[in-house]
Amino acid sequence: MIRFLTAGESHGKGLVVILEGLPAGVPVAKEAIDVQLARRQKGYGRGERMTIESDECEIISGIRFGESIGSPVALLIRNRDWENWSELMDVESVPEFMELVSRPRPGHGDLAGLIKYEREDIRDISERASARETAARVAAGAVVRSFLDCLGIQFFSMVLSIGGIEAQIRWDRMDDMLEAAEASPVGCPDLEASMEMMRAIDRAKAEGDTLGGTFAVLGRGIPVGLGSHVQWDRRLDGQLGQAVLSIPGVKAVEFGLGFAAAELPGSAVHDAIYAVDDRYIRKTNHAGGMEAGISNGEDLWLKAAFKPIPSLRQPLESVDLRTGKAADAAVERGDVCALPAAAVVAEAAAALAVGAAVVEKYGSDTLEGIRAALDSHQKRMWEKWKKGIFR
After folding, report:
1. What is the pTM of this model?
2. Residues 339-370: b if buried by 16+ CB within 10 A, e if exposed
3. Cα–Cα distance for residue pair 192/97, rounded to 1 Å
4. φ, ψ for residue 308 (rounded to 5)?
5. Which terminus of the chain is more solvent-facing, meaning fewer CB atoms within 10 Å of its CB: N or C?
6. What is the pLDDT of residues 115-136, one digit of tens each?
């Protein structure tokens, strides 16, 4: 199985990720990981932190001569901003003068985390609850993407809306949409909507406010049969949903038509199946590539809702926990809008979930073993299909 753990605080020395279960023989390049880390840092509306950090990973273990060797992969991403926080985040000594953060931000993990862990300083919670941790997930996802690339499985994303401004998506020109999204400052494939989104971000920044929106993740080349219907926790859509919902700020996930399917009759929701040239096809993909918790061979289409960043320049009302009296929430440096970054993180999350499902189904300790098992399974299924013995 593929699994991973991350460690590190937002302004600590750095972030660490340990990835276990990567098969041996996967080509892994530091540059490929750094490309994904750089994509996460881009986007119109990002905060001052992105002008300080220039994320790069350091491969500590699990890779030799550019190839995985079967042992756990350990990666380190150093925080350049640590130099400015070394006293406040020291692992041993308490600074002589330090003001506790005691005014929780609505919408953040400040208050709930403080109560759960019985801490006095909100920074003990906010440093780990920060979305800075997602850089480690992107690094882990980049390694797994190198594995999936070898099997012809790839992931893309695009921003669909920001602050209520909706992009127009040309479903018949998806390749063009993906290319335009990658070139857009806000990750949106609609040029006119992108310009309007940037103006909305400028207005929100001037008002000390933040904006959320929606994004989509597209997965291509995912084979039929990943996941399973036999137990609740083996359903691939459930695993993908959990992976994406765990991204800070994501509040909802849907597949294919998603919520819209609840308003339509079954005849307009389900994807009819046709036999063409000794294979089956779907002319629609309303299910988003998932049926009964199993990948059905169509593209993965996942959409997520991302709430506005809770760190506001014009803070909401809160309480000072030292006095119990009303006070404005603490003001922390943050983004105005982080939709493009969230979409990149979701690509990584989806890759990690799908990679784990691939290893589970085609289990082998090596890339070649998995590739052979996948090819054999597909060949066997299509031979049965052609003979009419698919049972």
Report:
1. 0.94
2. bbbbbbbbbbbbbbbbbbbbbbbbebeebeeb
3. 50
4. -60, 145
5. C
6. 999 999 999 999 999 999 999 9
